Amino acid sequence: MERLVFIGLLVFLALLFIGTALGLRSYLKRNDVNGVPMYDAPANEQTRTGNLSLKENIFYISMILISLAVALFIMSKFRHGAAPIASAIVTPSIMAYFNARKRTGKSWIYIVAVLMVFVFLMFAYILIGLPDKAQALMISNTEIKLSETKVSDLMDKGYDIYVSNGKQDYSEYDELLTSGSYYKYQGSGVTVPNGFKSYDSAVTRSTYLLVKKNVVLGCIGVYGDKRKSTELKDCVVTQVCFDSECTAVATKYGISYNIDGIDLLKKLDENEFTKVFGKKIWLTPSEPRDEYLGHYGVQWGTGNNEFFWNQYFMNLDIDSNNNIVNFSFKVHIAGERENN
Questions:
Q1: CA pair distance 305, 298, nearest whole angstrom
Q2: What angle (nearest 5°) sits at the alpha carbon of residue 324, between those of residues 318 and 327?
Q3: Which of 17, 63, 194, 315 might form a disulfide with 116, Cβ 3.0–4.6 angstroms?
Q4: At 169, is the secondary structure helix, strand, or coil?
Q5: What is the pLDDT of residue 136?
Q6: Closest CA to 159 of 145, 134, 133, 139
Q7: Do 172 and 280 lie in a common domain?
Q8: Is the pLDDT confidence value at 340 over 60?
């Protein structure tokens, strides 16, 4: 519903701009200046009437492209609030191109149309934004792309999925596969209800365990379809979480965890982490550091675009030695309300 509201606003804005352009054209044709319709009357004081040379075209178009690049850079840094500044940067270069030769009222139609297209795109960016995709998580040589990698893809690469029996008889990590709390998924017989759900990030309370060679590597969350139930193997992975018990065993068996060059089994180099994720980091450890845990939060995608594009979240808990003790990597499917 929210998505339709934003699309409706853009449709209304487009119709308003088209109506404005047609109204301006009608106004210029109906009104005269010194007996000449404003549509054909001079619109600036320029006396040169010849066509622009190739060099002039290259110059003015280059200025427009440069101003557009600067405007987009500013908007990427300061996001939606910089849209008016971006418009003010681009407009002078367009007007310079317009005034390079003698123009008539007819030319105003074109310049107004171009400006309205730019304003429309600016509003589209404010309301919808652009997709912001998170990096893939690597477990050894297996790439996991949230919302893209299917459970069947993991199974094809030698991973097993264990499913909770639903009785909430939580076991210790060492007993997860032997206590009867989980059973091995055989490739059929488990369906995931329709809609989006956020899963518990605690491995020992999770719904689905990610296992390889009888080693519990963490837990996953899945998503099937908005309207119908889906067989588990056909669902995409929406969440990967692990804790210090998982990483301790993974280290023993030579299994690695990596995201965008950051080794998640080593002490976290905070300078490198900040360099890699930059302004996507929204939460940093408090100073002075707590005695035990520090917290990092990273987010891809903000604002209203959650109705149009997936949003990704990564959270890390680190101990006083900068070792990662809890890791959570999740995606919120665009336009989906969370089911409890």
A1: 17
A2: 105
A3: 17
A4: coil
A5: 94
A6: 139
A7: yes
A8: no
Tokens of 257: 């965890």
* Sign for the pseudo-dihedral over CA of 171, 172, 173, 175: negative
Domain boundary among 93, 127, 161: 127
pLDDT for 138: 95
- pLDDT in the model for residue 292: 59
pLDDT at 157: 94
Range name among 153-157, 168-172, 192-196, 210-214 with the lowest pLDDT average: 168-172
CB 298 within 8 A of CB 158: no
For helices 105-127 and 2-30, the axis angle rounded to 10 degrees is 170
Helix (H, G, I), strand (E, B) or coil at 273: helix
Query: Per the structure block, which two tokens stand in for 51?
Result: 């066509």
The vertex-161 CA angle with 159 and 167, nearest 5°, equals 160
Residue 165 and residue 167: Cα distance in Å, rounded? 6
- Same domain, yes or no: 123 and 156: no
Q: Is the Cβ–Cβ distance between 154 and 208 less than 8 Å? A: no
Per DSSP, the three-state class of 210 is strand
- Residues forming a β-bridge with 28: none
3-state secondary structure at position 178: coil
Phi-psi region of 147 (alpha: psi -120 to 50; beta: other; left: phi over 0): left
Q: Which two tokens stand for residue 299?
A: 């987010």
Residues 239 and 298 reside in one and the same domain: yes
Q: How many residues does the chain have?
A: 340
Q: What is the three-state SS of 93-155?
A: HHHHHHCCCCCEHHHHHHHHHHHHHHHHHHHHHHHCCCCCCCCCEEECCEEECCCCCEHHHHH
Which pLDDT value is given to residue 84?
73
Q: Give the residue numbers spanning the domain of 282.
A: 137-332
Instruction: Write down which residue in 127, 159, 181 finishes a domain.
Output: 127
Q: What is the DSSP letter of 26?
A: H
Contact at 8 Å (CB) between 255 and 209?
Answer: no
pLDDT at 209: 96
Q: Give how many domains the chain has, as a whole number.
A: 2
